[in-house]
Records
---
Amino acid sequence: MDVADILQVEQVTLRKAKKPILQQISWQVEQGEHWAIVGLNGSGKTSLLKIITGYEWPTEGHVAVLGNRYGQVPIQEVRKRIGWVSMSLDDRFHTKGQDTVLEIVLSGLHGTVGVYEPLGEADVAKAEAAIETFGLTHLTDERFLTLSQGERKRAFLARAWVAKPELFILDEPTTGLDLIAREQLLQTLESVATTKGAPTFLYVTHYPEEIQPFITHVLMLKDGRVVAQGRKDEVLTKETITAAFGCPLDVIVESGRYWVKPM
């Protein structure tokens, strides 16, 4: 295992109640790559993310993240270098619905839900910069419960971005968005991912058409196994997508996006 890579997953298997959730997953992410993880519900995408972030432990196999092999380092120290946006954030912040966008983003500096640590002007400046990056400056003082779904997603992205992570993980970030809000969010991600010094992105989705041009590689899962992995243009073919989704599908490439339709 080369711990110098951004991510190294080696022969990882996860079982729950003797049921296999992930089976013999081996996967490597190197500096300069951005990956999409694609598959149907139940394919193992979120379980794999939980292992990468240290919230699940594999039944078998080994994981190294940002040069740190799990089991040999404090997981919490690795998490400080990871920005993670998941669907669970909406529920967690609902209990603190009076938090403003600024407070939500400031909480990302310490990985908490809510602000409990003393914060200075430099911290506020970092949060305001992240808020601007994701187009929410005009909503800085708005409270969580008044935000639209799209605005909440952007607030969570800014929260994950504020601590300048080296690995940026997005677990189905467009869930619940309408077509316009989805495309606007995807355009924002394309913009921030292509800025100088951007972190490595892992983007999880059911939908190949969400894979933006900045994504370089794809990991495709089905029933907890790897169907295909590698460069985007080599993986997003009608053969592999048909195998992963279990029905005949064709792929149309247009403006760097991959659109899927039934055959």
---
Amino acid sequence: MPSFTALPTEIVLAIAELLGPADIKGLSCMNRRLRNDITHILFRTLSIAMPLVSHLLLDHMLEKYKKFISRIHLHVFLRPNLEEDNDNTVMPSIGGTMESNTLLDLVNGKIFSHIDSFSIHFDPCQFDIASRWYGNDGDWGGGHGSGTITVFEDEEDEDACFELEEEQVWRAQYFQLLAEIMHNPNIKKLQFINLLPRRTKVFDTLQWEKFLGQLTHFDLGIFGAECDGWSVSAMPGFMQFVGEFLPQDIMKYLINVKHLKLEASELSVFGAGLYGDHCYAQDVFPLTSEIPTLQSLELKNITLGDSFLRYLRKQAGLRELTLHNYMCVSPDEPEEEDDDIWSDPANADAVAMGVGWSDIWDTIRLWNQTVQRVTYLQDEQPPLLDEDPPFPKGSIVWRHVKIDKYWGNVVEDEEANTEEYRCGCSSDMNSNLMKVLISRRHKEALSTKSQATETK
């Protein structure tokens, strides 16, 4: 491709920025000039599998490409207890090789002071193998196919993690990784993919609070799975983590975050309409505390409830909101045998689940005066009843679902989708909001232009 290789460096770099890692690698192989031009893009992110098998290659990569590396991605494989662990007095290190502390020193910031962005990906399939996930006492967990949920089934006492991290290898490794990362003073941007819904004693340290307080960008994805038809979101242990530990041990310390993304797994959504040990629906939304610095909020695979609307009203400085695969929960009729529970005033919040799409748009318009942009994304078009004609191109079907009380799975509500589509109320409210946002952006642009003119 002589015509491509002759392009100016600026154009080549602009193209490379849009490509994936494999395509960038292929581009770098075309000739020496292109390779030199895009080396800093190709080696910008260093991906490492933990535990480390050998430190030699890592040492070489750090030495050769240290001036290009600006982001670290860790793909973490935790392991169960093995037979040889019965006689071990020291827990296996998450760093892997014992000959070098290079990986752990990289994680805790001792090697590079310029790297402020970390991504930590916990492998979602690591619990698929039936093994000693509960320690050396002969109890087995895991297995049963992709994404087992047995390891996260039961609730735990807040202090139970102290004992479990002494007995279970994967819990000890989980603790070790978070303990190392929280001592890195350079990290400003942190991403967790499949954060495990289990507490660790790291959460009780002052250093953990300090670490979360230094973050400006935080992307948090929570582990989710299905096993034999069950969703982990129906498990008491999962609901305890999302509803109790996540708000008190993580979210409340994000005092300087400007961008926050909270993502549930497609297999295990959370928010409104979840059923735990009680026979009434609960609103398990982990964001409760106001973040004064928050400007951008992105939510994915979460069900809409009143807790979310209350949280929106607190975020006076919010400027951008993205709702990705968001769902409105259709209220269930109480069953006859549950009449006493539903009539109890203490459960009034559980009964009042009728929060709709129009409530979101109205809340933003009236309460969030600084919001400039709202983005609504659906990976797939929500279904309608079969008898409805095809909807016009560009029209929006607002998604409604029900949460199965027993299995915890999401069930699409075609009837509610169709009723909302025919009514058009939410679409009208959304259209009104978009007009308001355009007006806000226009006013801000005029204000900025006026200030620039005065400065001159």
---
Amino acid sequence: MADLATGLWLARSPRTGSGQVWRLHSQGLAARDGQEGRLVPWVNPEHQAESEAESEAGLIAESAKAPSPVLLVHDPWRPLPGRGGHLGLDAGLVERGDLDRRCDVTCFNSAPMAAPLELLGRPVLELDVRADQPGFDLCAALSVVKSDGRVLQLSTGVGRWLGDSCLDLGRRRLSLQPLLVTLQPGERLRLSIGAAAWPQIAVNPGTGATPWGPAGPDHRVITLALHLDQARLRLDPMVGLP
């Protein structure tokens, strides 16, 4: 497989992913401040190297937090553009820093890498979402934030939900395209979430009807509430069961 960052061909099996898992954290401002949302490595409590006192303190601090949902507002007449990714003619690493500065995009950033980190597998995002309309899309992108501030898109994925179940808080699962990439010290991993990728993806009207193209007079503004308490981003094997 070719490493997206280095261009080197590496002997890797698609049946063995690197297995990292991150939590999504925000105090509700991730759609207003592109630096506020965080990707935090999730550590299985059975394998934590912390002392019991440190673990207990961390659990108390975490349980004391009651972060508000992140509200994401989708304007169908000014939809978030799609760029690059598996559906774009400009496939490969593309700069998307300008897209991430829009107020209809939520961003979650990891801490800068202290050492090289290899990511291998299919990124899968799971989180609880409620909409105020009977239809919505989730369009996610995984990027590397370089030390000089450039944001290079690595992988994208799209999910669509239609019907009255969209009005209820429910678990939503979104698979992104498989990748192999090595992040270098000082670089950060970023997850961006929007509600459109026009013109690569037809704009969801928010009525429950199947989208066919651009926004029209029947389209509705859609507000999404992203509940992050149990949100996870993980890397599954590209093929086979994780």
